[in-house]
DNA sequence: TCCTGTGAAGCTTTTCACAGCA
DNA sequence: TGCTGTGAAAAGCTTCACAGGA
């Protein structure tokens, strides 16, 4: 398949992992990589790597492998990371502040361009160079900023209302750290990071350890 | 299937979500719930809910539904959450501090019992009532604590060495926030929370918006 | 009648296996 | 020979549909 159609989410997640590996390789001065070598680094098997990369068109040279630089560029394009994205971050609690300071966003091409919180105590303060604005101002502030991505780093009970405000402001992709299922219009895409989910899986595995 | 065998990870994740819903319902004084009602709350369809719960044995009453309290207890048991778990947290940067302060851990039965960091500037300081110890002390300190779960909230380059130290100290389950694939012995279970993965998926969706 | 538990169907994702090219 | 790209097979997960119990 030559042009990029819908790529399944598991594949997208692995492409992001390959990107990290390819960046490392570039820093190490590696110029070519086989599906097997890339798979080993990323923790997947070679066939999986080839199938994933086949979504991006034909790239590899039989008998040789893939060229690190061009492959990386191709994945960046497929993931839509080349232009950079503005992001609204809602919640200036400890998680929100950690995210505001996280350097990885910028490296991946994401720019947190505004920070919001409901708590009047936090409004007006600065976090990582950004002033905290009240949540009610999301829509008006985004009229200029035109960010399409929002991150919710607020407590569960506030999350649904925040999601509504973000969508109202024109956001169409939400990354949700609150432990609740958001109900949003179906043109809005939501990804959730839920600690209690991760912990539940670990805990189950732990309690099974040794049996099987 | 009456006794609990291996439960697939997607099911475990949903069970954690049901648990949150059931807790809410208990607070609201709801005593009984049908698979459809629970599904609606958790964002899954009724058949999925019944299939998931069938891993825990037979519980529901046809024509009535499930009793909220007993069902919740049963899920807690299946997830191995009843006894509580001690957790070692490594990394006292902004993410580590946010996790150390996160109240959700305790509510789910996880207790962060020690905090470690490589940075001498951070060692000795207190975060959320916990003193920060140097990473080299993980093994000795865990000789008494006997925690089996470790959380890595350190930068990528440090993560692999930390994972080694945790495993050395007897940890068998790791929750990794660093954007690297950890290589560990196969008796060790790893779950990864990777922001670049989440962002990559959102970004791809964003760049596809409107076509299809 | 209402709702569970579950075999079977349907769909998605992963793995296999090999033709074909450098 | 070494490695890609890809149909086909296998595995895994979700949804359907209905028998049967309260």
SSE layout and pairings?
2 copies of one chain form a homodimer.
Chain A: H1 9-28, E1 32-33, H2 35-42, H3 46-54, E2 66-67, H4 68-78, E3 85-90, H5 94-101, H6 104-108, E4 110-117, E5 126-127, E6 130-134, H7 138-145, E7 149-152, H8 156-168, E8 173-176, E9 189-192, H9 195-208
Helix pairs in contact in A: 1-2, 1-4, 2-3
The first copy, chain A, binds a DNA duplex (22 and 22 nucleotides) through helix 3.
Give the overall shape of chain A, derived from the CA principal axes.
Answer: globular
Along the chain, the helix and strand elements of chain A come as: HEHHEHEHHEEEHEHEEH
Mind telling me the C-alpha Rg of chain A?
20 Å
Structural class of chain A: alpha/beta
Give the CATH H-level superfamily of the largest domain in chain A. Answer: NAD(P)-binding Rossmann-like Domain
Number of continuous helical runs of chain A: 9
- Average pLDDT taken over every residue of chain A: 94
Proportion of beta-strand residues of chain A: 15-25%
Q: Order of strands across the widest beta sheet of chain A?
A: 5-6-4-3-7-8-9
**CATH architecture descriptor name of the largest domain in chain A:** 3-Layer(aba) Sandwich
User: Percentage of helical residues of chain A?
Assistant: 40-55%
Record field, number of beta strands of chain A:
9
Biggest sheet layout of chain A: 7 strands, mixed
CATH top level class name of the largest domain in chain A: Alpha Beta
Oligomeric grouping of the chains? homodimer
